[in-house]
Amino acid sequence: MSYAIIGAGKIGTAIARAFARQGIEVAVAGRRPLDALVAQIGPSLVPRPIEDAVKADVVILAVPFAAHRDIGRAAESWQGKIVIDATNAFGVPQEELGGLPSTAVVAKALPGAKLVKAFNHLPADVLAQGAGTPQGGRRVVFISSDDDAASASVAALVDRLGFAPIELGKLGEGGLLVQARGRTWGQLVFQDLARFG
Asked: Which helix (H) or strand (E) holds 11?
């Protein structure tokens, strides 16, 4: 399975570091040159143009929420791809989202993709600390999707990256706990939790 991260800001970089710690190759695409990032993190990061990165089997969106439409136009087809939505729509008016969870709005721009919400509830500096916590145990990453198989696949990736996956169910149900609605954060956003044992 091939992986790509679109977005080389703080969240994208933190996720890229998690891949590098496990020696998992991942394509990285962004708006700025990536040579320094690759030199800093290591050879498991492969810089790619966005048009190539979207060809991966699993694409992680680590871009500002408003950029999702541009990313949607970058692929010839999203059919069958798993897209991990690490964006946050904080401050986006509910009317603009049509009353939908933000990930459901992202899904409309990526027709045929299997959307999974993950990696968005932790601040970048916490996510960058990696999977381990100071108290021991593994840092939790919440997962939500309307596609059970995609959710399970992302849970397996999260586990492989060393984090503890916790599936919250459907986007419009448990997934609302990790999504912003207007100027209000979901109840599990910013919760840095650990799983022991």
From this structure: helix 10-21
